[in-house]
């Protein structure tokens, strides 16, 4: 059987998104059908709609979601109908060379549903990050459903992408340890989550860098101890001045542009770590003095999805949220209806929101 639901579709590069009828098949082997309760608007959705993540239009957007499993394929045993789940976009395979060597968070063969969701005329949809959750229901691989205790879905869903990426960049990739100094460049949802992660890890000094004073003000609520507006001052000089002239132990680049990466490279102390979690656009390049790459030592890392393991990290973070130690609610700037995603992109672009969250 196929169900008809409403979903947010990007039909063509740079065209405004539209709400369309989406045909969702019943789950087959290895699949789960999820009733979506809430789904955050992430910068990556905008990248899709702008054609920066390939030309596979039409896309079914949305990927930061929480919901309830409605049905599962016959061979699925890890999740069951009625489970409250956060959707993840890296369901590990358990068989690739990364998984076999015991590093499943690097899995090179993550999987998605095999059946396609379609437009009413039968055109197959490409779901954003293999999820497609700006829809009343979505079909995913069962491994993309991580069961967690039931909490506010608008908040929990954000752990499914941006917040996990930021928290994980600090907690898993760097990893920040207590007493360290940290700078975070770019204070959107991802950067503020990195700040919250550094705060959880016990960093002594957390310097937030952004071009927008409103974002810097918000960054303080997540744990930033100092802020630098890099539109009006030189972030490298400011970060050095705040750390006895040395630079910080860890710099997290949550923008992903040549200039921010360069700032991150130069603003860290000797033997420090740079973590790139912002996603660069195709064609961007960076030039670094090779002698400094050697002479400064330390590590230059990238963070895919915060190097997370959803089964390990989502329940742990939901637990910290329930204890009041991780403020997920402050990331939810507003809740919106399914037909307001295009408006939410405009607000994101104008820097007015951390996250708009579609509720169903
Ligand atoms: N690595 C991952 O797995 C992963 C997951 C999700 C998102 N991302 C990426 O993380 C990045 C941030 O996502 P977001 O949702 O927080 O975006 P966002 O648009 O909400 O926030 C970006 C922030 O960076 C600031 N900014 C932009 N240019 C800057 C500059 N030159 N210097 C300082 N600050 C600058 C903006 O003012 C804004 O506050 C995006 O590139 C997104 O694609 C990565
Ligand atoms: Zn694998
Ligand atoms: Zn995202």
UniProtKB/TrEMBL annotation:
<dbReference type="GO" id="GO:0016491">
    <property type="term" value="F:oxidoreductase activity"/>
</dbReference>
<dbReference type="InterPro" id="IPR013154">
    <property type="entry name" value="ADH-like_N"/>
</dbReference>
<keyword id="KW-0862">Zinc</keyword>
<dbReference type="InterPro" id="IPR036291">
    <property type="entry name" value="NAD(P)-bd_dom_sf"/>
</dbReference>
<dbReference type="InterPro" id="IPR020843">
    <property type="entry name" value="ER"/>
</dbReference>
<keyword id="KW-0560">Oxidoreductase</keyword>
<dbReference type="GO" id="GO:0008270">
    <property type="term" value="F:zinc ion binding"/>
</dbReference>
<dbReference type="InterPro" id="IPR017816">
    <property type="entry name" value="MycoS_dep_FDH"/>
</dbReference>
<feature type="domain" description="Enoyl reductase (ER)">
    <location>
        <begin position="13"/>
        <end position="358"/>
    </location>
</feature>
<dbReference type="Pfam" id="PF00107">
    <property type="entry name" value="ADH_zinc_N"/>
</dbReference>
<protein>
    <submittedName>
        <fullName>S-(Hydroxymethyl)mycothiol dehydrogenase</fullName>
    </submittedName>
</protein>
<dbReference type="InterPro" id="IPR013149">
    <property type="entry name" value="ADH-like_C"/>
</dbReference>
<comment type="similarity">
    <text>Belongs to the zinc-containing alcohol dehydrogenase family.</text>
</comment>
<dbReference type="InterPro" id="IPR002328">
    <property type="entry name" value="ADH_Zn_CS"/>
</dbReference>
<keyword id="KW-0479">Metal-binding</keyword>
<dbReference type="InterPro" id="IPR011032">
    <property type="entry name" value="GroES-like_sf"/>
</dbReference>
<dbReference type="Pfam" id="PF08240">
    <property type="entry name" value="ADH_N"/>
</dbReference>
């Amino acid at each position: 059987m196929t169900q008809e639901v409403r979903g947010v579709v990007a039909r063509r590069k740079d065209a405004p998104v539209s709400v369309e009828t989406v045909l969702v098949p019943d789950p087959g082997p290895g699949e789960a059908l999820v009733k979506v309760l809430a789904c955050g608007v992430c910068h990556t959705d905008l990248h899709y709609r702008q054609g920066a993540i390939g030309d596979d239009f039409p896309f079914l957007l949305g990927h930061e979601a929480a919901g309830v499993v409605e049905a599962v394929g016959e061979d699925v045993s890890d999740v069951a109908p009625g489970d409250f789940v956060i959707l993840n976009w890296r369901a590990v395979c358990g068989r690739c060379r990364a998984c076999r060597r015991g590093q499943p968070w690097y899995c090179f063969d993550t999987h998605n549903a095999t059946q396609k969701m379609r437009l009413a005329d039968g055109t197959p949809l490409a779901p954003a990050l293999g999820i497609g959750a700006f829809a009343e229901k979505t079909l995913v691989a069962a491994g993309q459903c991580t069961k967690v205790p039931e909490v506010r879905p608008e908040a929990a869903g954000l752990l499914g992408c941006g917040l996990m990426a930021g928290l994980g960049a600090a907690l898993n990739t760097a990893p920040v340890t207590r007493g360290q100094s940290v700078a975070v460049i770019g204070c959107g949802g991802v950067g503020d989550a990195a700040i919250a992660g550094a705060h959880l890890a016990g960093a002594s000094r957390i310097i937030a860098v952004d071009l927008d004073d409103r974002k810097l003000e918000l960054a303080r609520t997540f744990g930033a101890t100092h802020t630098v507006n890099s539109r009006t001052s030189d972030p490298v000089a400011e970060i050095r001045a705040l750390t006895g002239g040395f630079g910080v132990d860890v710099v997290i680049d949550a923008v992903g542009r040549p200039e921010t990466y360069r700032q991150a490279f130069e603003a860290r102390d000797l033997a420090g770590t740079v973590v790139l979690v912002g996603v660069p656009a195709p064609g961007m390049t960076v030039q670094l003095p090779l002698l400094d790459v050697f002479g400064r030592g330390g590590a230059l890392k990238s963070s895919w999805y915060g190097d997370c393991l959803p089964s390990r990290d989502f329940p742990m973070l939901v637990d910290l949220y329930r204890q009041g130690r991780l403020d997920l609610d402050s990331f939810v700037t507003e809740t919106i209806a399914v037909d307001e995603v295009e408006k939410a992109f405009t607000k994101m672009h104008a820097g007015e929101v951390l996250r708009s969250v579609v509720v169903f």
